[in-house]
Recover the amino acids of this structure.
């Protein structure tokens, strides 16, 4: 079912408070789970609804700039932080509040 919910090329999505994975075996993918946990923290910091508003607006700005939806997605500050730090399993223990601002 989840494989139909997620777009092509996406393995997971975080919709507070859930991490939705395309396939059940992805729960063992340490990098993916950490990436999505970073999004959970970002969403919590922005009281969830403001995260989605900011994400959408930033995506539109990046899309206008890059004229490519995949490049726009990769350049959203939330994604830049999550991709850069996904391999650091201890990142959330020392992450500062609103750290995504460093990736604007």
């Amino acid at each position: 079912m989840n494989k139909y919910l997620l777009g092509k090329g996406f393995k997971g999505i975080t919709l507070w408070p859930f991490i939705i994975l395309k396939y059940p075996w992805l729960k063992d993918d340490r990098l993916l789970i950490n990436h999505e946990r970073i999004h959970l923290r970002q969403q919590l910091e922005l009281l969830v609804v403001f995260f989605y508003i900011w994400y959408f607006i930033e995506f539109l700005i990046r899309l206008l700039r890059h004229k490519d939806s995949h490049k726009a997605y990769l350049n959203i500050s939330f994604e830049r932080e999550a991709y850069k730090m996904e391999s650091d399993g201890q990142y959330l223990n020392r992450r500062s509040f609103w750290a995504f601002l460093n990736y604007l």
